[in-house]
Backbone:
């Protein structure tokens, strides 16, 4: 059991790296193209990448939701509840970071959290029963 748990933990820790790297490259390319790194460029680039991530998140969420509706309808309801709670958490966490770390976090934080959430949803989609 411990070996299985370690394998799962390793998988979870490694799975975001691909997406993080791709989205990080997009974010960095946007910053490089902006010419100057300042609050406006950080905000604009983070918002742009975040929109792309949200599209992917919605796509993966819909796939997972439909799969769960067929296989375990009560789990589809639980996914919907969890996603709504996650959105509240993300918005509150990023608002707090923006207030205490600085204004670019209002945009950078949601980008980071959206990327992480996509990977969580992909994990559920690809490893569900």
Residues:
């Amino acid at each position: 059991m411990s070996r299985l748990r370690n394998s799962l933990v390793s998988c979870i820790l490694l799975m975001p790296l691909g997406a993080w790297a791709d989205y990080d490259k997009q974010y960095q390319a946007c910053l490089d193209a902006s010419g100057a790194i300042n609050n406006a460029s950080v905000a604009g680039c983070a918002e742009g990448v975040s929109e792309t991530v949200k599209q992917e998140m919605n796509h993966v969420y819909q796939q997972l939701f439909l799969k769960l509706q067929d296989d375990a309808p009560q789990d589809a309801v639980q996914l919907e509840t969890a996603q709504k709670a996650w959105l509240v958490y993300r918005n509150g966490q990023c608002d707090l970071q923006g207030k205490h770390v600085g204004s670019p976090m209002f945009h950078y934080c949601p980008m980071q959290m959206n990327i992480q959430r996509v990977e969580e949803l992909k994990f559920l989609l690809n490893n569900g029963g």
